[in-house]
TrEMBL record:
Source organism phylogeny: Bacteria, Bacillati, Actinomycetota, Actinomycetes, Mycobacteriales
Protein name, per record: Putative hydrophobic protein (TIGR00271 family)
UniProt-listed InterPro entries: DUF389 (IPR005240)
Organism: Nocardia alba
Annotated transmembrane regions: 114-135, 141-162, 174-194, 214-237, 244-267, 279-296
Alphabetic keyword roster: Membrane, Transmembrane, Transmembrane helix
Any Pfam family the entry gives: DUF389
Oxidoreductase among keywords: no
Domain of life: Bacteria
Keyword field contains Transmembrane helix: yes
Amino acid sequence: MLHLRVISPTEQTDALVRVLEQDAGVTHLTVARGIALEPPGDLVQADVAREAGNKVLADVKALGIVHTGGITLEPVTAVLSDAADRAVRAAPGDPSDAVVWEQLLKETHEESSLNATFVAFLTIACLLASIGVATNSPVTIVGAMVVGPEFGPLAALSVALVRRNWRLARRSILALAVAFPVAMVITLGATLVWEQLGWITTEGVIDAHDVDFIYEVGPFSLVVALLAGAAGMLSLVTAKSAALIGVFISVTTVPAAGYAVVAATIGQWHRAFESTGQLAVNLVGIVVAGVIVLELRPRAGDTAGPLGRFKRAIGMRSAVER
């Protein structure tokens, strides 16, 4: 379930309470009159079945409280209540299938920000990848995959394409288009220094066959990117962080960028171009898979969604319904 917290101007509280009372997916409704100081007003709280979240948020936003008060929505890890079970049963669809779009938009908006922290993480990841390539160390490359923050903007771009949010799309593309070149240029400088120090040799990179998968583009390059993108988006909308970590270590976005830099510094241009191709295939594959997953999830006005209708057709029920 989701916990809804609203600061409502006193003159709008009664209308807000009526809206919440009329939705069967809302329970544990409480009102604290005059308790809010900034902005001034009343505090209204409720627990909302996840699959009813889109409608409830739309109804609350229609009151204009976004401008006159404030709305906070956060996931609830555990609820022990018969009333909550009834609310989940009354809401259409299945909690595990529901996407709360406002929540997803806010999360991806933050993850797609171009800032010093994002660039720093991506730069560190590229540096680790270049070291892994130079030393023929798959373990170091896996570390680079985990550190890389690029899935955030890619997920945001998928959400933006599905929701036709072109501002978020531009924000995501800008983050990737600026951060990757910056990280690769810094990695290029570091690699040249390491070559001058004798830490990296042409033979060392050419003979690093344990990391050939980074630049060798094949059919499974796209397949892995699609599978990873689908798993990543599912983990994002269902808050499965462990699955998201698995996504990070399955695609070669950052390692491909690092390999391209190292290969270019030693004149291995064909490998540099192949690595760049691998990077492009993975980026596009993740975004495409994310869009497909979101298109299959419940949409506004269709709370069951294609997956929900299929499950109903074959007689599947949620744990609460059972």
